[in-house]
Amino acid sequence: MATLFSSDGAEVVQRALAEEPGGRTPPEALGDVYELERAAAFVAGQGFRRVALQFPDELLADSAAVAAQMEAATGSKMYILGDTSYGSCCVDEVAAAHVGAEAVVHYGPACLSPCGKVPVLHVFGRRPLDTERCVGAFRELYPDPLSHVVVLSDVVYAHALGELERRLRPEYPHLVVSRLACEGDPGSPPGPGLLQQFGRLVAVEAARGLPGYAVFYVGAEGPALTNFLLSWNRCCFSSFDPATGRGRHETLQVNRALARRLYLVERARDARVVGILVGTLGVAGYLSVLAHLRDTLRRAGKRSYTLAMGKLNPAKLANFPEVDVFVLVACPQNSLLDSRDFYRPVVTPYELELACNPARAWSSLYVTDFRDLLPGGCAHVGFPDTLPGEGDAPDVSLITGELRGAALSSAPAPAASSALACRNPALALAEIGPAGSFLESRSWRGLEQQLGQTPVTKAVPGRRGIAIAYEDEACG
């Protein structure tokens, strides 16, 4: 594990940047790949004058050309957003606000999490799909023509679902093909048998319900498929990978993944100090779930710290050794973080509720969208009211074998206590809470400028090479 927290730097210095197959998109193909006509109509139709174009890392090579053509077609000012603060599947509203953008055009794969601040247009891109091989794989996986099957896809293959439905509908009368919610009417509420989740609309038979259907997913293995497998774990899943042209049943992975998540719930039950990681600033409702988690941890007798640090890695979280477990508030795709290489485990808000809320029990239901946990959500479970002396029955940890007390509290949240600290003797005072005072007492505080204390010297030629092996020194 030492390599996770320290590195000799040679790999970073000598690493070559990977390029996408085929390099940059030819200029004559930009209009089709990036749907420039539809994006220009979106900008011009609503009169936006400042627009942010958000690209994932693999599409940044085409960003300048796309921005130039968009400015020529609309007359509006375009700003390129790259290196997003959090996952590239989410809309980076914070970076858009820095340039005063009135709208965002999001390119590439997306989690379709709702945004509440700026209008958004998604341009997923259209990856090629061998429809003939996909249809053949579907027939092998579901030989019974009367099978009830829901067809899902990654967003980059959504353009091909219409052709799949046209080929399979005559043979499979109970086939249900999903569509993207952003392509339909966002104001129409889901009715009986109409399920809207993770940016998809699925119209199933109300009497049968979603668990009565099998699910056929078109796309590669990744966070999107894992999210569906865990959330709809009562359905039998199969998938078709367009890259390999093969279909397969997805069963054993779900059992292992759920067992791993249940282990993380036990780790959260043992935790005394919990770090709340802010993994999104754009998904609607993230402030509400932060307050909800703080209240849940307080009532469960656990201390909590709220941390915002952008993209996560083991080295960042290792700076907080006093934290026993972290909970990540992010979009459904990014919340399922594999924390095996981390110093402390990272759980989801749902798993933290399983650990802290005695009224919520482990079942086949698994929630990855934190908005469903809030009051009014489909998976909300209120915290039980406890009287003094109740709720103190000891519990045995399944990991350590030690007794742990369930010190539940129904008292209202105490007023936020704070300590006055002198930020600037001539200007202002700042309020620092107990948690902030604890973290401020750390010995490492970063670089100190020491203005006026460093003597001025002439510049001299420096060493060449990397820190472990400069060219003018002998190697061990």
Report what the structure shows:
The chain is of the alpha/beta class and 476 residues long. Helix content is 26%, strand content 19%. The strands form seven sheets. A five-stranded mixed beta sheet has the order 6-5-10-11-12. It has a four-stranded parallel beta sheet with strand order 2-1-3-4. The protein has a four-stranded parallel beta sheet with strand order 14-13-15-16. Strand 13, helix 11 and strand 14 form a beta-alpha-beta unit.
Features:
globular; five-stranded mixed beta sheet; 15 helices; 19% strand; four-stranded parallel beta sheet; 26% helix; alpha/beta; 476 residues; disordered N terminus
Q: Give the beta-strand count.
A: 22
Q: Order the strands across the largest sheet as they lie in space.
A: 6-5-10-11-12
Which residues form runs of ≥5 with pLDDT under 50?
Answer: 1-6, 17-22, 184-189
Strand content: 15-25%
Distance between the termini: 24 Å
Shape: globular
Indicate the radius of gyration in whole angstroms.
Answer: 26 Å
Structural class: alpha/beta
Number of helices: 15
Mean pLDDT: 81
Query: Helix fraction?
Result: 25-40%
